[in-house]
Write a structure and sequence with these properties.
Largest sheet: 6 strands, mixed
Bound molecules: 4-diphosphocytidyl-2-C-methyl-D-erythritol 2-phosphate, adenosine-5'-diphosphate
Order of helices and strands: EEEHEHHHEEEHHHHHEEHE
Structural class: alpha+beta
Number of helices: 10
CATH topology of the largest domain: Ribosomal Protein S5, domain 2
Helix content: 25-40%
């Protein structure tokens, strides 16, 4: 029986700008995405005796039926290649759920890449990304990995030089945020602070953490912050604990801090863990 294990990594948005709204309700974005080394472990096992998809997980908060986006990824591949073998997918969740860290999208990307390899389907990265966007806007980035400028609805990607081994602390408050609702509540006319995306890309090229941390911006932040004061509180705690900069990732509610070195990041992590259970110490990840 064939099997494969893959790591599916979380992302943070170092910038997020919304350019406009499309007729289908989706938004045109411009965002800088960076993978971090917080990951779920996915184990895929082929089952030749059955023609079904079974999802299991250590995490009680994700669906195990066909609404799990890892399930959808497997279903698309099985359909496209007319494969009648079953598969069991076990997701060992470490990435917090509904957090703005693309945990689900990363799982879907992991399943697409994993099945491509296990079944030797010969799909290119571009072909995998074309399948991925049918599942969710963040899936193509999770397939590409490392760091990228994402445009369109998030699927048009230009690889960027990522931040190298930069220490990041993630703090996910115990509230839930719906991405769809955050986009719905965004009033494009009321955005006061937008990121200067190309200036930030230059800063990344130079590994200039100071400029990046000072200038990064996420236009969805105010939408989520208005509803949940804890976001602002976590950002100010990150700064109090010596982050170079702190911001909400994606639609939230996770807040991340960027740190100059491990020592400072570890001290902030230790302090934040006392007030916020889901706190993580990690590094940027580039393949
Ligand atoms: C905000 C971001 C930033 O990276 O990430 P998260 O906070 O979800 O991690 C992404 O734009 C989220 O991408 P993703 O979570 O894959 O979105 P999808 O599942 O495709 O869409 C969920 C819902 O968000 C809205 N949506 C999503 C992407 C986009 N460019 N415009 C939108 O308006 C749509 O209402 C859609 O129904
Ligand atoms: N494999 C999966 N992992 C996480 N969430 C999933 C998965 N499949 C479906 N979901 C659902 O998708 C929603 C968004 O989850 P997630 O991808 O973790 O959010 P975000 O993109 O904000 O980080 C959750 O409400 C969850 O129930």
């Amino acid at each position: 029986m064939k099997s494969i294990t893959v790591k599916s990594r979380a992302k943070i948005n170092l910038s997020l700008d919304v350019i406009g709204k499309r007729p289908d309700g989706y938004h045109e974005v411009q965002m800088i995405m960076q993978q971090v080394d917080l990951y779920d472990d996915i184990k895929i096992i082929e089952n030749k005796d059955k023609n079904n998809i079974v999802v299991t997980s250590n995490c009680e908060f994700i669906p195990k039926n066909n609404t799990n986006i890892a399930y959808k990824a497997a279903e698309l591949i099985k359909e496209q290649f007319n494969i009648s073998y079953g598969i069991n997918i076990h997701i060992q969740k470490n990435i917090p759920v509904a957090a703005g860290l693309a945990g689900g999208s990363a799982n879907a990307a992991g399943v697409l890449k994993g099945l491509n390899e296990m079944w030797k389907l010969g799909l290119s990265t571009e072909e995998l990304m074309d399948i991925g966007v049918k599942i969710g806007a963040d899936v193509p980035f999770c397939i590409l990995g490392s760091a990228a400028l994402a445009e369109g609805i998030g699927e048009r990607l230009t690889p960027l030089e990522g931040l190298k081994n930069t220490w990041v602390v993630l703090a996910k408050p115990s509230i839930s945020v719906s991405t769809a609702e955050v986009y719905r509540n965004l009033d494009l006319d009321k955005i006061t602070r937008r990121p200067e995306t190309y200036k930030l890309i230059e800063a990344m090229k130079e590994q200039d953490l100071y400029t990046l941390s000072k200038d990064m911006a996420n236009v969805l932040e105010t939408v989520t912050e208005r509803k949940h004061a804890v976001i602002r509180q976590l950002k100010s705690k990150m700064m109090e604990y010596n982050a170079l900069g702190s911001m909400m990732s994606g639609s939230g509610p996770t807040v991340f801090g960027i740190f100059k070195n491990y020592k400072k990041a570890k001290a902030a992590y230790d302090n934040l863990l006392v007030i916020n259970k889901q706190t993580y110490l990690t590094q940027t990840y580039n393949e």
